Amino acid sequence: NTRLIFTKTHATSRDKTNMATKSATSNAITLKGSAEIVREFFGYGINSILYQRGIYPPEMFQRTQKYGLTMLTTCDEALQGYINDILSQLKEWLVQKTVQKVIVVISSVATAEVIERWQFDVECDKGFTETSAPAQKSEKEIHNEIQGIIRQITASVTFLPVIDTQCAFEILIYTDKDAAVPQTWEPSDAKQISENRAEVFPMRQFSTKIHTVKAAVAYRNEV
Description:
223 residues; two-stranded antiparallel sheet; alpha+beta
């Protein structure tokens, strides 16, 4: 009961302060508050992957502070707008509790072969609603868990093969079958790495007690 979808439409630029939106002010977390924390994580996480894997040149990124770390986010308005459009729709699906996975696919421009596949499994408390009593978890604890994933993305250059070809990226989202899908999103195949060539590196996870995100990266083994 899944649908795999992605967007090809690049949007106009958005307000650059979007990614720095304050996501929580206390230990009480509502459904929408949890969705915002997860959305914000994916904003920084996607940017980190694009920077660390050299998909875009370093001059397209700027330094900012988040989660107690120095983060790099794109300063290219077209790319920023594209990512923000995806995150905006992702947040809607997170509130509706219809997201199953978010995938960042890196593929060769020349051959279209998938080189890396960053997979984030999303679990949610299906019984939690906007009228439920808020979940209780401190912002500090959540940020510490997110920090662990971001540090692993940063360290990925030490264990992932060097990317020596021009690459592009796509963001795929698995949703429940009954999720409402905007017309700008289209069905996609799973963009898997060629059979018997994939090595998988499990990563850390974080939880808001409403949504849980479990990370892993698969890469093409050339041996």
